Amino acid sequence: MSNSWDKARTLADKHASQGGIFVRLVNDGDKIVGAFCGEPFAREVVWTGERYETYDAANTAHADKRPSLRVMLNFFVFAENAMKVIEGGTTWFKDVLKIRDKYGLDKWLFEIERHGEAGSPKTTYSLLPEEKLTDELRAKMAATQAHDLERLTNSQGDADDAKPAATAGRKDGPIDPRIAGEIVARLKSLPRTDVDAFIAKMGVQRVRDLKASDETAARALLDQLEAKAEPAKAAEVDPFA
């Protein structure tokens, strides 16, 4: 394959992984640079076969399932000038604790790199200091609203309700073609059944039929479908898929 094809594929993968709330490192060698912000939000979860749910010992549906740890942190991505959410399991969070104790999370930008092909249960992630935070970078972070991690967790899975709330009583124009292209790129990495589910739940026949006010609901639904598509067995070692 020529260099131009390799470059085009790399850029397509990059743009397919951008735009959502969550940091997603999809392929072997994918990396991101940013700063950890604020306090972690930790919870025990179980895999229902469709999505992660917060573990509830009193819930009979959870009785035969072994809970695993998931920890969220706000993560400012300077290349996108955006606050995102990064999430991982026990092994990943222990690595975060190590770099916090050694370097201080409030003093450095960190590079996170994926080691493992998409869907591999043996995937690991390296966390290395990239450069020290400057006053200018700190100002950018301070000017960006952090996500309410607990509220975000409680609202996951409510994407079906997001579209009516966003569009009720409103008339607006078509979605931006650039955003539509980004959504299409992300959908292409999903199984056909998930693509069909996305189209049905958004109430359109084609992505370009979406309205501008549908963007938030579409991104939330994509995040949910992408999380569902990853094997449950990768929960502990594949935190960003």
Short description:
By secondary structure, the protein is of the alpha+beta class.
- Regarding CATH, which class? Alpha Beta
Low-pLDDT windows of residues = 11-18, 157-171, 231-237
Question: What count of helical segments does DSSP give?
Answer: 8
Tell me how many strands there are.
6
Walk me through the structure:
By secondary structure, the protein is of the alpha+beta class. It has one domain (18-234): Replication Fork Single-Stranded DNA Binding Protein. It has helices spanning 3-16, 90-103, 135-142, 149-155, 159-167, 177-187, 192-202, 215-229, and strands spanning 31-47, 52-54, 68-77, 82-88, 108-115, 124-132. The chain is globular and about 50 Å long. Mean pLDDT is 79; it is low at 11-18, 157-171 and 231-237.
List the topology elements.
Blueprint: H1 3-16, E1 31-47, E2 52-54, E3 68-77, E4 82-88, H2 90-103, E5 108-115, E6 124-132, H3 135-142, H4 149-155, H5 159-167, H6 177-187, H7 192-202, H8 215-229
Antiparallel strand pairs: 1-2, 1-3, 1-5, 3-4, 5-6
Throw out a few tags for this protein.
single chain; 241 residues; alpha+beta; Replication Fork Single-Stranded DNA Binding Protein
